[in-house]
Write a structure and sequence with these properties.
The structure is a homodimer of 430-residue chains.
Chain A (H helix, E strand, L loop, with lengths): L2 E4 L6 H4 L10 H15 L1 H12 L10 H7 L5 H19 L8 E4 L2 E9 L2 E5 L8 H14 L3 E6 L9 H10 L3 E4 L2 H10 L9 E3 L4 H10 L14 E6 L5 H12 L6 E6 L2 H14 L6 H9 L2 E4 L3 H11 L3 E5 L3 H5 L7 E4 L5 H6 L25 E9 L1 H17 L3 H16 L1
Parallel strand pairs in A: 1-10, 4-5, 4-7, 5-6, 8-9, 8-11, 9-10, 11-12
Antiparallel strand pairs in A: 2-3, 3-13
């Protein structure tokens, strides 16, 4: 069960952070072998791996339009409406991320600007398994579509019957995914990185996965294919004062704990009674969860921590850089103002993490494992790159040219100076 | 000398692209050894490597304030004024990249927004060697300062006398660099990644370098330290019609060719006379360059290509994804509208690349090697991450809660549903 820690000294904080993850032995060699085989053998390697790992050799790697159309029938109407609402909120929030940038005249005759352009082909990986992560389809395909990617390729493993969960197919069909392939694991990442006869190579790869997928995403960066972000187990940190609702806080901690045995959750509070009451609620609620054993394992890595002050809570949180941060205090925005490292922040008693996981409109693909210090979550920008432009007129080159000549000289780049000199000379001769 | 190619068939285009780079044999093992040694031995490893590679064991790794103050005396006043102008333009363009994002109400009672926060500590690497790349100090330290990084750590190798070029120190002193260390190569990257007794570990590492530096930057990403972008040799592609000025185009191609023997330059035109005249100008101008032998080597990888139409020129360019693209045509903006892959684009006869290298205001740290397909150049955002926030009121959770419950159920995450359910229940009971 989760432990209670009181007034930990600052030097001990980091010892509470993320237990070291144990990598499967030989993982890197195994994944390297998969990458190389897919690169050289293409589709036939994908089919072999499917037979080996998914227990089925699909007749076709690409999911047919018929299967996609059929899938819709398996989605109940109320769930369709729920997904449609989530989709709309995600679209509203992400569309606002598309902004026009102004043209800046830095010196008379020198205009500079930037233009955002989508990457042409985005690759999305959606894990298989019992729980169909259709919400992740929304969170990745919608920003890609809003960015304007020409192709949105999705890979997901088939089940034992050679099929993809209908919820995944339905979500893909309403979010702009252009092609769906039945292939999973490291081999799917390899297929999207290198391209095969069926699967097109993409410009960037997104999405969660197991250790094989994660390692493959890490390794294909060496081939120049960027990925959304480094992966790690999911995390939640709650900062609560005495005005929080223990039942809510406990439910939030448990919602994160059920994700996986390596999840980590923290409650920090300046109120000892709050901590005791949350503990009581956790013990009460955990028995109702189908994934109780997973949650129990996760709670072993976790803690309820009593601090002297809110200042300490915020400092701990910034040092930890949580993926999710709930602030359940009287004035959440004043606490939020102190947050410098976090993936996504939830303010007030009614902003539960699971609302953000599905439907507030923010993206749920977030930096874990402390990467919130130097990475952002997925956004429309994740599917775009920015090109800079400049237009220098005759007046402009007269204004900045002599300075460029001096600097090029100082860097001993005579050719750089000359490119300006020939232009200034021609203007003097006019 | 540079070759002329006429009407190449589409299938042959890619064979003209970037010759394969040859990696020094054993590079990865050597760099791994350096990373490990710096990680375990800290400063003493840095000093040993300096003795070995820089030919000097500096008395102190940190550059003293006195040295920095002294440096200013070695910078001529006219160069100071030139640097000051470049600095101002870079600041004007980069400051405009800081924008406030609106709060978006996605559903009544559900507000979402993003906030940009600087990474705390930025690390900047500046190579040594004969040419002092002070312009790169401006291009990296100014955006970091504008982003608001708390620490901007700069590493650069000492010369044989244990000193840093005064231009580098001067540029650092006027751009907000907070600490300067005399250490170079892969060991400098390791120091900024892991931290040593003297050098603080940073959140992200920027800057150019030789094969050792590049490989070290590639490898430290495995430890979760992001870098600005993957590196490669510098490139320029010029699209010119008959209205271009051959003397200018030749000077531009040569300014890029002098960078290094592995640089690559292309001219594409729909006008055969333009190609012949540019070739003539190249042959004329190249003899004036102190770095002629470097430029000659680079021209061996390069080509002047005659295409049937501007459309083909643009298509070739987008496929190649050049670091720098000059458009010297009658209507450069109509050609620019078709550009989807490029680092930085220069419009018109007076927009030479070297102007952008120093002083237009755009950043000169750009994606090479085809990475312009999926990476942006350095900007203020490179030194920041974005945190999402959401605030859900009682009304908000009533609006989106039931949909979240349905979706959590469909993903078999009962704990996620429960976090919403306890809130909805409490509101019904009120």
């Amino acid at each position: 069960m989760i432990k209670i820690i009181k007034h930990p000294v600052r030097d001990s904080w980091e010892s509470l952070f993320r237990p070291a993850q144990i990598e499967k032995s030989g993982l890197e060699e195994k994944v390297r072998h998969i990458l190389n085989r897919v690169r050289s053998e293409g589709d036939s390697a994908l089919l072999d791996y499917s037979e080996k790992y998914d227990g089925v050799r699909p007749e076709s790697l690409i999911v047919s339009y018929e299967e996609i159309r059929e899938a819709e029938k398996f989605v109940p109407d109320d769930l369709k409406r729920a997904i449609s609402m989530a989709k709309e909120n995600i679209e509203i929030f992400h569309r606002a991320q598309i902004t026009d940038e102004p043209v800046i005249e830095t010196t008379p005759g020198v205009k500079c600007w930037r233009k955002s352009i989508p990457v042409e082909k985005a690759g999305i990986y959606i894990p298989g398994g019992t729980a169909p992560l259709f919400s992740t389809v929304l969170m990745l395909a919608l920003p890609a579509t809003i960015a304007g990617c020409r192709e949105i390729v999705m890979c997901t493993p088939p089940d034992k019957n050679g099929r993809v969960n209908p919820l995944i197919l339905y979500a893909a069909s309403i979010t702009g995914v252009t092609r769906i392939y039945m292939t999973g694991g490291a081999q799917a990442v390899a297929a999207m990185a290198f391209g095969t006869e069926s699967v097109p190579g993409v410009d960037k790869i997104f999405g969660p996965g197991n250790q094989y997928v994660t390692k493959a995403k890490e390794m294909i960066q060496m081939y120049g294919i960027p990925v959304d972000m480094p992966a790690g187990p999911s995390e939640l940190l709650v900062i609560a004062d005495k005005t929080a609702v223990p039942e809510f806080v406990a439910a939030d901690l448990l919602s994160q704990a059920e994700h996986g045995p390596d999840s980590q959750v923290f409650l920090m509070s300046d109120d000892e009674e709050m901590i005791n009451r949350v503990l009581y609620e956790i013990e009460k609620q955990i028995h109702t969860l189908p994934r109780m054993s997973t949650a129990l394992e996760a709670l072993e890595n976790s803690a309820l921590i009593l601090f002297d002050s809110m200042i300490d809570c915020i400092e701990f949180s910034n040092l930890y850089a949580p993926e999710h941060l709930i602030i359940a205090t009287t004035e959440p925005s004043s606490v939020a103002a102190g947050v410098i490292n976090a993936g996504s922040v939830f303010l007030g008693n009614y902003s539960c993490e699971s609302a953000g996981d599905y439907a507030t409109g923010t993206n749920h693909t977030l930096p874990t494992n402390g990467y919130a210090r130097n990475y952002s979550g997925v956004s429309v920008e994740s599917f775009m790159k920015k090109i800079t432009f400049q237009e220098v007129t005759q007046e402009g080159i007269k204004n900045i040219g002599p300075a460029v000549e001096l600097m090029a000289d100082a860097e001993m780049l005579a050719g750089h100076r000359n490119a300006v000199a020939v232009r200034l000379k021609s203007l003097r001769n006019e």
